[in-house]
Amino acid sequence: MKNRLHDYRKLYEKHQLLEEEIPTDPFELFHYWIKETETNKEVEEINTMTVSTVGLDGFPRSRVVLLKEYDREGFVFYTNYLSEKGKSIENNPKVSLTFFWPASERQVLIKGIARKVSDAESDEYFQSRPRGSQLGAWASNQSSVIPSREFLQKKLDLLEKEYENKPIPRPSHWGGYKVIPSEFEFWQGRPNRLHDRISYSRENELEWKIDRLAP
Ligand SMILES: Cc1cc2nc3c(=O)[nH]c(=O)nc-3n(C[C@H](O)[C@H](O)[C@H](O)COP(=O)(O)O)c2cc1C
Ligand SMILES: Cc1ncc(COP(=O)(O)O)c(C=O)c1O
How many CA atoms, within 13 angstroms, populate the side-chain half-sphere of residue 104? Predict the structure, then answer.
């Protein structure tokens, strides 16, 4: 059976991205796009991004994570350092991030190097999470094969008893990565599939080369 999705056809026409209107600093444009998307209250989880890594087997692998912080240096997400992605990053810190905001017909691609954030930063973020999520980080040996759902639940039950009325420390294998970009691409959907694509490549600490790419 062939399932055709040919009739999904959206015309992109909400915005444009023109050289004369963009900042020289890609972080500024990213910030502007996030802030603008945030004003649309119908958009959920604007901080989701796809992080792609190169696995130990040489294959790329992508998965969604939550962007928790960004500044003029980079983009931070939190995860298990011993997960598949954690092991991949330790072996090869070259990653890409992809944001897709359908409501504003925009995509942002980022190429960069992932570095662990400091223990102090990871501790601070971990302590801000709900206790359930903190215990979840202890309970889940992320990416490993487990026998059943019950196995996880039992671990959680034991952890709840162990940490009853006690602060929950951050597992040393759980923390943040900051992706330091060397390239950004801002994609704005336009009619006739002739989208605007503006790329920023890092030239030095402060300067970026701006190019328009064919859609
Ligand atoms: C909306 C959404 C947000 C997620 N956020 C995170 C996150 O911030 N950190 C994380 O480790 N996994 C997050 N996940 C789960 C990951 O997609 C993935 O399943 C998990 O990190 C294991 O990936 P790996 O086995 O490739 O390392 C999220 C999934 C979704 C759908
Ligand atoms: C496995 C996993 N770890 C971490 C996170 C980040 O969650 P939090 O917002 O609790 O830090 C998520 C979010 O979905 C997740 O699924």
Answer: 24
Q: Which of 44, 51, 78 to mutate to test the pocket of ligand 2 (most atoms within 8 A of CB)?
A: 78
The total number of structural domains in the chain stands at: 1
| CATH code where residue 117 lies | 2.30.110.10
* Residue at 199 is within a domain: yes
Pocket test for ligand 1, best of 63, 75, 134, 143 (most atoms within 8 A of CB): 63
Six-digit token pair at 151?
Answer: 């196995």
Query: Could you read off the pLDDT tens digit of each residue along the chain, which spans 215 residues?
Result: 899 999 999 999 999 999 999 999 999 999 999 999 999 989 999 999 999 999 999 999 999 999 999 999 999 999 999 999 999 999 999 999 999 999 999 999 999 999 999 999 999 999 999 999 999 999 999 999 999 999 999 999 999 999 999 999 999 999 999 999 999 999 999 999 999 999 999 999 899 999 999 99
Catalytic residue positions, numbered? 193
Q: Which domain holds residue 68?
A: 19-129+172-212
- Whether 63 contacts 80, CB under 8 Å: no
The reply to whether 44 falls in a domain is yes
